[in-house]
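BUG: 3D viewer hangs when loading the predicted structure for this chain

Environment: internal workstation, default settings.
Expected: structure renders.
Actual: progress bar stalls at 90%.

Input used:
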Amino acid sequence: MEFSFLDILKIIGSLGFFIYGMKVMSEGLQKAAGEKLRYVLGSMTKNKYLGVLSGFLITALVQSSSATTVMTVSFVNAGLLSLVQSAGIMMGANIGTTITAWLVSTLGFKIKIAEIALPIIAFAFPLMFMKFKNAKYWGEFLIGFALLFMGLGFLKDAVPDIKGNPELLEFLQGFTHWGYGSYLLFIAIGTILTIVVQSSSASMTITLVLVAKGWISFDIAAAMVLGENIGTTITAELASMIGNVHGKRSARIHSLFNIAGVTWMLLIFPYFLQMVEWVTLHIGFGNLDLNKSEGIIVSATTLTLGLSVFHTLFNLFNVLIMINFAEKIVVIATRTVKSKSDEDEEFHLEYINTAAIKTPELSLMEVKRELVVYSGIIVKMVGFINQMYTETKKSKIEKLLKKIKKREEHTDRLEIEIADYLSKVSEIELSASESLRVRSMLSISNDMERIGDIFFQIGIELDKKADQSNWFTPEQREGLMIMTAKVSDAVLLMQENLDEEWNKVDLTEAMEVEDEINKMKKSLRKQHIISIENRDYNVKSGLIYANLYTYLERAGDHTINVTEAIKGQV
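Structure tokens produced before the viewer hung:
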């Protein structure tokens, strides 16, 4: 058989065409269905069963299990999902990825969509120039859909028909008579193929083409599909490499789930294939003829549909079995991914750039979640400030100051990284509402960083008071603690508003708390001036006291700025 380097390039180019079409189609659909995606993602935090449904719906919609799993790792990394909840999402993503196989096998091999691809593009092209953003996004989806199947058509044409090249068939058959050894070999090939193309959907499509062209038998193709299920876990593992211990454990759960599924499937592989053959025959797709009976010709369509049946049934059964062991899988993942120190057990948020989602809607949703956890750092800092007021031991005061300083440095890093990430999101074409949300998020991040700075300065002032053996009167201490409690209320309300649907947030309560803080500051300042005149306390402690209530009032100003930014007032 003559197979030149140019033919190899044609296959690679066809595959690239297919993957690019999938990318354009996926991103267009994500943009068009952004609000629905947000609703689906909102259900993630309920339980593992709803997690399965969420993982399935998101993956079916965006046509990328890698996007779903990487996003899940980032959420676990940020402390927004528990490991058990993430296990359900990962399992659902495996079922969702079967939609691609059905799309390709039913349309790509039964209907010659490549022939009507150009008319589809002709219909979609005017949509790209309409003022309605959803019309433009649906246009992108249709163009991606057409490109995907054009790529599939090129791929089918680029792969030579095995019937005309019997010598290659003899070569391949040399690897198919080793029983389970052959299955293990092609599982490894499927794994490597998925790692190389970084897309289980693309590797599944290649497998469908190979079985349709007669290059590999049905059972070997099924073994490759099992390998592709293992290969797709690599993306999540890579995404978790720079994450914290929780992100690594989430990725490990995905790997354990898929590897365990392939293991039990190998134990019953021949019997499962017989069941797939029975199902394929009885739902009208045709006879797979796994026993190679004489006189039976199996069509390419039957083979591809049968492989889609295998892919779906395997993932369904795997989820139904493994969902009952989700907690145990979490335990194994926890034991195999050990934390190196106590610090590793804390949730770190400096990994937002690992997200695979590039559409504005999902990217901004991830930033919103990051901001909620960011506000949690501020809440902890307020708690440390409150402890410093009543602590008398210098060593414990210094320890609390170190905790505040560490979180202040964390807020500095978060502001820079969120700003960098949002600048990348801004490079994508944004709608007017999305542009406003980007500006709001930048403002929110900046205000929360300033709150962190202020709380650190308050900590320094309290540490300075302890160093200089200054003292506050009971009235001073009580006034500061009351004002700090009001600031704490403002911070908690800020966190609550950040976690809420932003269009539902009401400014009224936040404004009332801000007004109380301002009145409190005026009251303390007035009383402070009177006390200074009466020489009720020394000047040094008086300066520290004045600095503290001034800092607290500034922190209150920044919290109301955050809530106003949530409402788009930037």
